[in-house]
Amino acid sequence: MDATLEELRTGLDAGYFTSLQLVQAYTRRIQQVNPLLEAVTQINPDAHVIAIQLDNERDQMRNRSQLSKLGPLHGIPILIKNTFATDDNMPTTSLHGVVGSRVPEDSTVVHKLRDAGAIILGKTKTQWSAIRDDSYENTVEKWTHRGSRTRGAYFEGQVPKGSCGGCAVGASIGLAWASVATDTDGSITMPASQSNVVGFKPTVGLTSRHLAIPRALRQELTDTLRLESVGTMARTVKDAAYLMKAIMGRDRKDPYTARIPFDIYPNYVAACREDGLQGMRIGFLRSLAWFFQICTYDLSVDKFNQALDMMRNAEATIVDGIMLNGAVNTDSDSALRRCALDFSLEFPRHLCHLEKTPRNMYSAIDSRGFTRKEPNDSDARCQTNACKEAPEMEKGETPTSQEVPGHEQGYLDDLGLLAAFKKNELDALATWPHIAATLCSRMGNICAITVPYEKLGPERPIIASDDGFIDSAPNKPYGISFISTSFQEEKLFKIAYAFEQLTQARSKVRPIVVPRTELADLLVRRS
After folding, report:
1. Residue 526 lies in a domain
2. Which active-site residues does the annotation give?
């Protein structure tokens, strides 16, 4: 079940197996590991019926020799983060107090997936982090109201690092072909690195956020700060490109998509070529020193230099020693307040789309109150103060009153990231996933991709977090991130695919939790 999209489509089109058998295999795999990893919150009860319908459509098109007219994801099971609204029998959604609510239509991304022929197999667990602060003794690394927290598959008790940990785990160990996720503050970049998958975070506006529960959707005066983006997680760069191709595009229900600068969309799949590094100018970021200790603990500078040497040998030009002298460490309190304000403004608008507002839920403060009174929430008093901050700020603050904080202006000015790209004529920047997550969380007009690269050796110590989960241990995967400027995703796919082909790193890191079922166990060739 580690197959690529092209392998799955070849098998389906040839009649070697069916979409129904894929759904059955993936469902069994989820059932086998989910009690331990808790990556998936719900399986689509209609997935089997949908698969049968799509199999019948494929049979008809095969008989007419018209298989090429099928959608690119026809009959392919996909997982989505459970912040996406779906107009089906999977209740919405991940936030406490609105579970079980219904929506009148699919979110735009889900609608695009269905148009491409995909089967929404289920929804992955969302672990709310940055919208919930750590005032309560910092004992909960990530919070979720549906069961316990997601665990990674590469060592016992692994922290998956981010709200999209369920998406990353699901893609990594083959609980579906791939998954669709969202990123505000590293929620794609970091879990992808931790779970040995490719994570792609596009420029804000390339994909629609309509009917995905918002955390930070509004536009700052600089059009750069704290913006949600819908991206992909897959086992290969090309599969991430296929999925991005299916979900990208303008949407009148999300005005940000009007920022897309091209009428003919780039072919990200065609960009996946083995010579993609040739002629590229790639900068190596050595500043942001406060991050270096945490970054280099997992992936040392020497190991990173080896990756740079591989790129040089592939005829890329490496511009070493890029410095962002204007960027300083972030004031987490002010960042939290801005994020909380975003959430408080957007959450009521999201509720307006529901056919019925559940449990008298009208605002962020209502959500906080319900959560803290919920008797079944083991962490009900943990990390809800951000929702309290939000309504307090509503009284005196508006989106137009949110100036760029001085300590973050350095990311934007002549000493910042965009200036470094221009000054050094860069196509991309290579850096650690931690740093990529930080930059992306402060600038909506950049894009990033994380590619598997290394793992920690058996000599590395086990490092536990305060809540008993394990942050680092032998066999921990670690990736390299590439960043580029606004709507330069095509360059990133070129670079990342070529780098992936050089390293073949994903195949060298094996999870310790592996589902037993394989497609061959269900395979019965149809006559």
Report:
1. no
2. 81, 163, 187
CB-CB contact of 120 with 114 (8 Å): yes
Domain count for the chain: 1
Task: State the Cα–Cα distance between residues 98 and 91, nearest whole angstrom.
Answer: 9
| Those residues with Cβ within 8 angstroms of residue 277's Cβ, 6 or more apart along the chain or in another chain | 311, 314, 315, 316, 494, 495, 498, 499, 502
Non-local (6+) Cβ contacts of 383 within 8 A are 128, 129, 132, 133, 134, 135, 136, 140, 143
Q: Which CATH number covers residue 79?
A: 3.90.1300.10
Query: Each residue of 386-407: pLDDT tens digit?
Result: 444 444 444 444 444 344 444 4
pLDDT digits (tens, 9 = 90+) for 233-279: 999 999 999 999 999 999 999 988 999 999 999 999 999 999 999 99
With H, G, I as helix, E, B as strand and everything else as coil, classify residue 272: coil
Strand partners, 80: 123, 180
Nearest Cα to 504, choosing from 460, 462, 452? Answer: 452
Nearest-angstrom CA–CA distance, 128 and 216: 13
Q: In this structure, are residues 350 and 367 in contact, taking their beta carbons and an 8 Å threshold?
A: no
Q: Report d(CA 505, CA 147) in Å as an integer.
A: 33
Asked if the structure places residue 527 within a domain, the reply is: no
What pLDDT digit, counting tens, does each position of 142-178 carry?
444 455 789 999 999 998 888 889 999 999 999 999 9
Question: How many Å apart are CA 292 and CA 438, to the nearest integer?
Answer: 13
Quote the distance between the C-alpha of residue 453 and its chain's center: 18
Torsion angle defined by CA atoms of residues 284, 243, 167 and 143, in that order, rounded to the nearest 10 degrees:
80
What are the residues whose beta carbons fall under 8 Å from the beta carbon of 53, sequence distance 6 or more? none
Is the pLDDT reported for residue 25 higher than 60? yes
Contacts 24+ apart (CB under 8 A), 217-222: 217/256, 217/342, 217/346, 218/342, 218/345, 218/346, 218/399, 219/256, 219/399, 220/399, 220/402, 220/404, 221/400, 221/402, 221/403, 221/404, 222/404, 222/412
**pLDDT at residue 81 is higher than 90:** yes
Asked whether residue 454 is assigned to any structural domain, the reply reads yes
Whether 465 is in a domain gets the answer yes
Locus of tokens 């972030």: 330
The secondary structure element, H or E, covering residue 28 is: helix 19-37
Tell me, what's the pLDDT at 217? 46
Question: Which residues constitute the domain of residue 153?
Answer: 5-130+139-521
For residue 478, what are its two tokens? 């670690």
